Amino acid sequence: MKKPSESGRPHDGTKLALLAGAVGLVAAVTLTACERDGGSASAASAAASAAPPDWLEGAPKKRLVVGDEVTGFEAVTHNGLMFRLADYPDKPVLVVFIEGATPAGIADLSVLRDGWLLFNQTLGATLAVAPGDHVSHRAFASEQKLPFLMASEEESHLRAAFGATTAFGAPARMMFLVGKDRRITHVFENLSVQGYVPALRAALDDGK
User: Fold this and answer.
1) 22: which residues sit within 8 A by CB, 6+ positions away?
2) Measuring CA to CA, how many Å separate 158 from each of 1, 28, 202?
3) Fewer C-beta within 10 Å: the chain N or C terminus?
4) How far from each other are the two terminal CA atoms of the chain, in whole angstroms?
5) Among 47-61, 120-134, 155-169, 192-206, whose mean pLDDT is lowest?
6) How many Cβ atoms sit within 10 Å of the Cβ of residue 145?
7) What is d(CA 125, CA 148) in angstroms, rounded to the nearest whole number?
8) What whole-number distance in Å separates Cα of residue 148 and Cα of residue 207?
9) What is the band of 46 on the pLDDT scale with cuts at 50, 70, 90?
10) pLDDT digits (tens, 9 = 90+) for 12-21
11) Distance from C-alpha of 108 to C-alpha of 98, rounded to nearest angstrom
């Protein structure tokens, strides 16, 4: 099992303003690169068929690393409401990227669901990002009895914004822990299913 990747805070960051406009959905993420090259309101449902945001084609294909800043993003969740990072100013937020309704994706979400009480009080929110739209996620979340929120990677473009892909561009199983200062504090990748909760608890204990 690989340990979560860590690095220091950035000294001279390069601001990347990423702005996406879509029908019924706005996804805005402002990122600061780290030493490397260069729910509240009701939401509509038709974002999946909208054109990709302007920044997606020209945005650097860089993965966020420890120390990078995530100053804001919004995404429609499976319950039809808007998730806003700004709504959780006092606690860290966990963003989980999974494969969706596959055996591996279900296993990842199940272990987080079963360990929910061990870390829920410390986190402001947990957002699982997966393929599919928020309508299909609603049925999936109900079937799996998930206590946290789900967002569509196609509708929110969050996978592209976080760079949660493999070296070959395939979707990666990853978790990003965003601290109270809105900087990435931990990146979890290539963990065994049973390694998710212990790694997350250790990371949250480090932040106390």
Assistant:
1) 47, 50, 51, 53, 155
2) 26, 9, 25
3) C
4) 25
5) 47-61
6) 8
7) 7
8) 21
9) very low
10) 443 333 333 3
11) 7
- Can you read off the two tokens belonging to residue 6? 């860590």
Instruction: Give CA 14 to chain center in angstroms.
Output: 21
Residue 201 per-residue DSSP state: H
C-alpha torsion sign, points 87, 183, 94, 167:
positive
Helices (H) and strands (E) in the chain, counts: 7, 10
Tell me the CB-side half-sphere exposure of residue 91, using CA atoms within 13 A: 14
Give, in words, the CATH class of 14-206. alpha beta
Tens of pLDDT, residue by residue over 88-113, are 999 999 999 987 777 888 888 888 88
> What is the Cα 131 distance to its own chain's centre?
13
**Four-point Cα dihedral 11, 4, 2, 105, nearest 10:** -130
Residue 183 · residue 70 · CB < 8 Å: yes
Measure CA 162 to chain center: 7
- Residue 150 contacts residue 118 (beta carbons within 8 Å): no
Residue 85 burial (CB < 10 Å; 0-12/13-18/19+)?
buried
User: In Å, what is the CA distance from 83 to each residue of 2, 67, 71, 192?
Assistant: 30, 23, 14, 28
Is the pTM for the entire model greater than 0.90?
no
